[in-house]
Amino acid sequence: MHDVLIIGSGLGGLECGALLAKRGLKALVLEGSNQPGGCMQSFRRGGLHYDTGLHYVGGLAPGQTMYKAFAELGLLDLPWQRMDEDFDHVIIGGRHFAFHQGYEAFVEGLAKDFPHQREALQSYVQRLQNITAEDMDVCAYDYLQETFSDELLLNVVSAAAMKTELRKESLPLFNFAHTCSSYIESSWRLKGDGNLLVNKLISTIEEAGGEVRTNSKVVRLTEKEGRITSVTCSDGQTYEADYYISDIHPALLCQLLEDCPSVRKAFRRRMTSGENTCGMFTAQLCIKPDALRYFAHNVFVYDKPNVWTMTEENDPVKGVMISARVPEDGSDKLRQIDLLTPMPWHECQAWSETKVGHRGDDYKAFCQQKTEECIALAEQYIPGLHDMVEQCYTSTPLTYRDYLGSPEGGAFGLRKDCRASMLSFHSVGTPLPNLLLTGQSIILPGIEGVTMTAFETCSKITHENARQ
Ligand SMILES: Cc1cc2nc3c(=O)[nH]c(=O)nc-3n(C[C@H](O)[C@H](O)[C@H](O)COP(=O)(O)OP(=O)(O)OC[C@H]3O[C@@H](n4cnc5c(N)ncnc54)[C@H](O)[C@@H]3O)c2cc1C
Predict the structure, then answer these.
(1) What is the dihedral of CA 70, 446, 295, 189, to 10 degrees?
(2) Alpha-carbon distance 298 to 16, whole Å?
(3) Atom 18 of ligand 1, residue of closest alpha carbon
(4) Is 329 in the same domain as 349?
(5) Does 84 map to a domain?
(6) How far is the CA of 38 from the centre of ligand 1 (A)?
(7) Would the CA dihedral through 437, 441, 442, 443 be positive or negative?
(8) Residue 423's domain spans which residues?
(9) Which of 285, 356, 357 is closest to 320 using CA atoms?
(10) Under a CB-based contact definition with an 8 Å cutoff, are residues 318 and 304 in contact?
(11) Into how many domains does the chain fold?
(12) Cβ < 6 Å from ligand 1: which residues?
């Protein structure tokens, strides 16, 4: 029998397994699909690795936001490469801006273009460094409007936050700030694929006697006298443990709790009534050899200063993130570029009844059209990109739904709403004392958010263990 059973091997599930392993507990991680890692997994095509949900990480230098956490998880030893000093470039309406690493350099860099907003920029970075839980109730867009009188600058500072869901009326400042701040501390790319990170966490789990099992989809949890006693997988196997952690979407978890009387309607309603964040469209381009020099920064290109309405009306594509992959052969020429743009579920709803590989020619044409639109925007930074492409692989919210089970293919789990923070942010606890939650839907998405949450989840178990 294992000490802890974890449902889902996304980043949060594996981090919990590894953290508990370091504290002497044996974890069994059950993963429904045939590959561990969730959004961290990579796939191989034509001899190259492609990632799904890993482009860059912030705050890995000593003393910064993610340093201690990654040190404890053993992830600092991976081949991280610091990105350019100007780590994010923003192009809006043809004008070019850059974000620099370090809060002072960040202010100075933008103050060159917006000298009249220097004080506002200073106040902004101060605020980013002093975010508290109270900022879950603060509307990010309102805060930015109060801070910046220049509408273009408001759009520029928000531009790289395309990697969260920029909704004017609901996005809490807490989420916006966490999406921006650690990258300003320092920004890093992995030389290699996300499986390096996944495999490192798995080996930590295994060294403590734990295990990660793929093709093990959990279909039911069983309760006795107010505690979970076992889980059952689709192949009929049952597993028991002292503690259970769910790293899956809370609405999916609720479906597995049908037979648990201690889970009352109010909890189920909270977990199932929340809206999902929008999905992402990704075009992963394999670039012809020697066609393009590697660049260690991301570029966010928007045709207009409409950064905050993109997720509602991104058809045709109005903004794109360009992320280059570190060349693994040490060459200064790159072979892979990802182009990402938000994609609401309704854009691919016409194919909602289809499965991977069988969506039909109209879906292929739709993806081709989106790719062309993304490339057209990206050409503002890389002229002639279209002719450099050797191969292209695309994914839509349908891909995330079918591979990871994420409802409506939401890229960042459940949406957080500053107008209803008590309902949209969740505690890691549940009505069942030995069932805990983790993963991107609970508090914050992204590598930083999921890691913070994994620490919180595990601290509940280690505290209770210490009390016994
Ligand atoms: C396109 C894209 C780009 C991104 N880029 C970045 C980035 O550059 N930097 C960054 O910080 N973040 C990025 N993110 C976000 C980051 O990848 C995610 O927030 C994080 O990986 C989510 O981890 P998670 O633990 O919530 O699990 P998930 O990745 O959601 O994994 C959940 C796992 O549970 C499994 N599962 C589901 N149901 C069951 C069941 N019944 N039984 C067993 N297993 C089950 C699924 O198969 C899956 O493997 C990106 C996300 C996307 C979509």
Answers:
(1) 20
(2) 30
(3) 446
(4) yes
(5) no
(6) 5
(7) positive
(8) 2-53+65-78+193-274+416-467
(9) 285
(10) yes
(11) 3
(12) 7-13, 30-33, 38-40, 53-57, 163, 217-218, 247-248, 252, 280, 282, 340, 404-406, 411, 439-440, 445-448, 450
Q: Give yes or no for a contact between 42 and 49, defined as CB atoms under 8 angstroms apart.
A: yes
Asked whether the whole model's pTM tops 0.90, one would answer yes
Atom of ligand 1 nearest to the CA of 445: 19
Residue keyed to tokens 């109060």:
146
- d(CA 435, CA 428) in angstroms, rounded, equals 9
User: What pLDDT, in 10s, does the model give residues 32-46?
Assistant: 999 999 999 999 998
- Shared domain for 324 and 376, answered yes or no, is yes
Residue 81 backbone class (left: φ over 0; alpha: ψ -120 to 50; beta: rest): beta
- pLDDT more than 90, % of the chain: 87
Instruction: Determine the residue type at 458.
Output: C
DSSP readout, 270-297?
HHHSSPBPPEEEEEEEEEPTTSSB--SS
**Which residue lies with its CA nearest to atom 47 of ligand 1?**
404
Contacts with 92 (C-beta within 8 Å, 6 or more apart), sequence order: 152, 155, 156, 159, 302, 304, 305, 307
State the Cα angle at 399 between 44 and 37, rounded to 5°: 55
Q: What's the residue count for the chain? A: 468
What token pair was written down for 260?
A: 């648990």
Percentage of the residues of the chain whose pLDDT score is greater than 70: 99
Asked whether residue 270 falls in the same domain as residue 353, the answer is: no
Closest CA to 430 of 174, 132, 134, 223: 223
In this predicted structure, the answer to whether residue 80 has a pLDDT above a threshold of 90 is yes
Taking the CA of residue 63 as centre, how many other CA atoms within 13 Å lie in the half-sphere pointing to its CB?
2
Q: How many CB atoms lie within 10 A of CB 53?
A: 24
Q: State the chain's mean pLDDT as an integer.
A: 95
State the DSSP code for 81. E
Mutation to probe ligand 1, out of 11, 28, 39, 248 (largest number of atoms < 8 A from CB): 39
Tell me the per-residue pLDDT of 109-156, one tens digit each, with 9 for 90 and over.
Answer: 999 999 999 999 999 999 999 999 999 999 999 999 999 999 999 999
Q: Are residues 396 and 290 in the same domain?
A: yes
Ligand 1 pocket test: pick from 248, 257, 340 the residue with the most ligand atoms within 8 Å of its Cβ. 248
Does residue 443 fall inside a structural domain? yes
Report which protein residue has its CA nearest ligand 1's atom 19.
446
Using CA positions, which residue lies closest to atom 25 of ligand 1?
12
Q: Is residue 345 part of a domain?
A: yes
